[in-house]
From TrEMBL:
Domain Endonuclease/exonuclease/phosphatase intervals: 10-254
Organism: Sphingomonas anseongensis
Matching CDD domains: ExoIII-like_AP-endo (cd09086)
The entry's keywords: Hydrolase, Magnesium, Metal-binding
Cofactor(s), names only, from the UniProt record: Mg(2+)
Pfam families for the chain: Exo_endo_phos
Family: Belongs to the DNA repair enzymes AP/ExoA family.
GO molecular function terms noted in the UniProt entry: double-stranded DNA 3'-5' DNA exonuclease activity
Protein name: Exodeoxyribonuclease III
EC number: 3.1.11.2
Amino acid sequence: MASKKTLRIATYNINGIGSRLGILLRWLEEFQPDVVGLQELKTIDDKFPSDELEAAGYSAIWHGQKSWNGVALLSRVGELHETRRCLPGDPDMDQSRYIEAAVCGILIGNMYAPNGNPWPGPKFDYKLAWLDRLFDHAKELIDNDVPAILMGDYNVIPTDFDVYKPERWAKDALFSPEAREKYAKLVAQGWTDALRELHPGEPMYTFWHYWRRSFERDAGIRIDHALVSPALAPKLKAAGVDRTPRGWEKTSDHAPMWVEVEV
């Protein structure tokens, strides 16, 4: 009989891997995640710090982009078998927003969804179209009974409970009724929102602006999510937000969000 292992899988918008590599390496050493999805690399492929990450014990696959976007997956527990680096039907390959791989019998999709501001406008239209492609791909994963996690920076605040002061975000694309509706329909396919499932009574923010001492006041929002497919949901053991690195000097404005699943 095969032994069971609990994997700690995290998502972290690093907000510039070049300038925050030290932050990332410190967090990897202290938190010891098994698999990590990174967003907002803000670097071209050739500048991705694969050697430094390998020295820290992590193999990596990545899709970079100059100055903007960029996604990567890291693993210290097994080979990452890349399955795609954009959503099906995405006409804009210049924007690196999605990367997907299988590791330890789990398919992990890591994303940096469009921000969509200003709203309304073409950037908001692009956001909604991108979320539609995500919806279609997610449905195919569920229809095929794939043990999967779709995680990353969704750039969607799902409900009033997920924001410190809803009225301050009323005109922001992240809190628009259209974006929230698309997130709700995505979850309604059968996905488990890990944080909300295991912490129904806590806001569990993942992002705080740099200004007005937002982190110190806990004036945050929840936009980093991990959705677990029905085939994997029974093996979901824990989920949380590691707020520690958000308090470090010159850090990202996001905190890592994580889940633990049994494999």
